[in-house]
């Protein structure tokens, strides 16, 4: 784990991983929001790290993407996804 990733806040880790997972599935923010029952604006704010997201909404987004919530909080997820 790099020094920069060790200092990343959980909110920013989640934001980066959420955006990456969504893009890998070729989903728009609007499509993800619809599947999760949230607004597109909310998803956008979460992906930019501007929103202090609740654990319940984290679960909704993970479920909508079909990925374990733990993966969206994993500092090294981006590296693993990039090598697929």
Automatic annotation (TrEMBL):
Domain of life of the source: Bacteria
Keyword DNA-binding: yes
SMART domains the record matches: HTH_XRE
One Pfam family hit: HTH_3
PROSITE patterns, alphabetized: HTH_CROC1
Domain HTH cro/C1-type: 18-72
Keyword field: DNA-binding
Protein name per UniProt: Helix-turn-helix transcriptional regulator
């Amino acid at each position: 784990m790099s020094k920069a990733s060790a200092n990343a806040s959980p909110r920013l880790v989640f934001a980066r991983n959420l955006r990456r997972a969504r893009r890998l599935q070729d989903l728009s923010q609007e499509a993800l929001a619809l599947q999760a029952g949230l607004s597109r604006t909310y998803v956008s704010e979460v992906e930019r790290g501007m929103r202090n997201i609740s654990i319940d909404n984290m679960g909704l987004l993970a479920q909508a993407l079909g990925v374990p919530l733990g993966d969206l909080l994993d500092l090294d997820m981006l590296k693993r996804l990039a090598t697929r």
